[in-house]
């Protein structure tokens, strides 16, 4: 019988990170020396990509 290896996950200490406010409900925590504007733009790009279809749908040809 195989023994299951336990996964140890250590959460980051947010007291040592910089808070970036996106809007009233959204906050990101980044490294202290990182650029907050880049973090905002990367977050917005990911949110915009969620709503898009990955495959373009072909329209039927009318004849």
In short:
The protein is α+β, with helices and mostly antiparallel strands and 63 residues long. Helix content is 24%, strand content 13%.
Shape: flat
Euclidean distance between termini CA atoms: 66 Å
Beta-strand content:
5-15%
Largest sheet: 2 strands, antiparallel
Judged by helices, strands and strand pairing, the structural class is alpha+beta
Number of helices: 1
For the largest beta sheet, what order do the strands appear in spatially? 1-2
**What is the string of SSEs from the N terminus onward?**
EEH
**Uncertain regions: pLDDT < 50 for 5+ in a row?**
none
Can you give the mean pLDDT?
Answer: 88
Proportion of helical residues: 10-25%
Overview of the molecule:
With 63 residues, the chain is α+β, with helices and mostly antiparallel strands. The chain has one helix spanning 36-50, and strands at 18-21, 27-30. A two-stranded antiparallel ribbon has the order 1-2. The longest helix has 15 residues, at 36-50. The relative contact order is 0.12.
